[in-house]
Amino acid sequence: MKKYDSTKDTLDHIEKVENMIRIITQELFLRSKDHDASKLCSPEKECFDIITPLLKTTTYGSQKYKDTLKKMRPAIDHHQKNNRHHPEFFPNGIEGMNLVDLVEMICDWKSASERHSDGDIYKSLKMNQERFNISDQLLSILKNTIDFLKEK
Length: 152
Hints:
The protein is an all-alpha fold.
């Protein structure tokens, strides 16, 4: 009886994993190119022309921040309903998201925190944990991802 050689099965497994990772990386690449493109078109563009400079001078989650957002609610609602990297896109919030959505979301949150003069992604994460009912486990994963990005 010939002894089993796992090489073929292992190479098949590697190829399958490689193909799946390629699908995910291609999707992330496409999203990186199209991220927030809806902000460049009506009805969002006009509102974001006004709101973006105002938000730079506010603290994320503050009353001034919330009041500023209220003024632009139709554009923000349109944006969130048309961009799946926002929990608001899904009826069940973050639970409806996949890992690709989460990667784009955390990159978006990190970048957005840098637009505020006093932005702090870790404080934002804590606020968003409550806002979006993020589990402690997922919060740790998101923090680990931010730490990873800071190392690069």
